[in-house]
Amino acid sequence: MSSVTSTPSLAATGLDRPPASPWWDELRATLKLSAPLVLINLAQHGLVASNAVLLGRLGAEPIAAGALATSLYLLLFIGGIGLTSSVAPLVAEAIGREAGAASGAVRRTVRAGLWVGFLVTLALMPVLWFTEDLLVLLHQEPAVARDAGSYMRVLQWWMFPALTFMVLKGALAALQRPGPPLAVSLIALPLNLALGAFLAFGPPDLGIVGVALGTVLTEFLALVALVLVIRLDRRLHRHRMFASLWRFDTEPLARVVRVGLPMGVAGIAEAGLFEAATVAMGTFGTVPLAAHAITLQIAATCFMVPNGIGQAATVRVGRAYGAADRAALRRAGAVALWLGFGFMVACALVQLLAPRTLIGLFLDADAPGAAGVFPVAAGFLIFSALFAISDGVQSVALGALRGLQDTKVPMLIALFGYWGIGVPLGAALAWGAGMGGRGIWAGFCAGLLVVSVALVIRWRRLSAGRARGPSAQAG
């Protein structure tokens, strides 16, 4: 647009306004794709958040038990998500490289992702069965550990339908068709709340177990609905996503694992940081643990937005990567990073200015033990606001790097930042400096800051020199 010879005049083109800047085009494309992905993330996280709301109505001890069980479940589940999330960049790269001829690659990649999700579920469910014994070994209060174990023995059946849903969501996002999983997710959220409330407080009166059962039933129904929508969508017929699902194709499965395994390890590294913090918080008593659980729910809800933007960046960068378009690749990453940064600044301000309002969304002020939880949670929210910006930036940077199928170095960065800095510093401040739970949250801030800065530097370096995907290079 800066060259007179390369841009026709308005009179010659007959246009009423100059052609749009490619940066504005990228912003619109990113917003168009990320908006439904953000809503899907919020709806899916809403399953966990609504469970926390229901548990909060049961009292401080149930919400503490639910926090322990949920954090352990998510620690392992996020590893599975990391493995299966490789479906999105691989499908995006295939579409960018082959355009309309990529149906075979899409089908094989989706099938491999579904197999990986099934195998991960088989490996992890036996571990989750012994949650109570594990928590007792970690010096959690026996009553809380017992309730957490009962909760987990139902919740663990959530893993298979949830991972399968994630594979299909990633493939549809790469095809720039996020509408079906969005519609299903928006219906699933109120259904989960209704089923959980009925099973926990209604005639079945199952308490904490009823909350978990409501989520499991909701996820299975959501998966069935998404499969039906995909099969009935004529625009998706050519990809034949569910053809020959019994085939165990080693080559596409190896690609899914090769790209996804470092993503899974990085996810576990981050989730493990929060799981370690939750277990450590439990040693300070039920009140700090309940306050920590509420603060995590608030932080995680904010995080769903940059996470969705990062998923959009994976697709936008991945398509440009497959098409060997370096300029488009860099624009996609830069636009996504600034969007994520701006939103998390706003979230941090809300956490600082309205802490009691946010806490009240997750805890009934009249529930048993609630009076002592409010001030502790308000103190934790100060630290949550501080690390919100770093958390958002690192999520978007990870998404952009995944579009380049760069996952090994980000994994090492995550391991170093979270476990080399965040955990030891948090422990030193919590016990050595006598800060208690606030010290653990300070460790979060430090670890996430290091990771976010390192990932942005990594993105800037790679995006300046990498334009073609490995499949394109291999022919």
TrEMBL record:
Keywords of this entry: Antiport, Cell membrane, Ion transport, Membrane, Transmembrane, Transmembrane helix, Transport
Domain of life: Bacteria
Record flagged with keyword Transmembrane: yes
Parts of the chain that traverse the membrane: 63-91, 112-131, 155-175, 182-201, 207-230, 335-354, 374-400, 412-433, 439-459
Topology term for the membrane: Multi-pass membrane protein
Acetylation in keyword set: no
Entry's localization field: Cell inner membrane
Main subcellular location of this protein, as a coarse class: membrane
Pfam family, one: MatE
UniProt name for this protein: Multidrug-efflux transporter
Species of provenance: Methylorubrum aminovorans
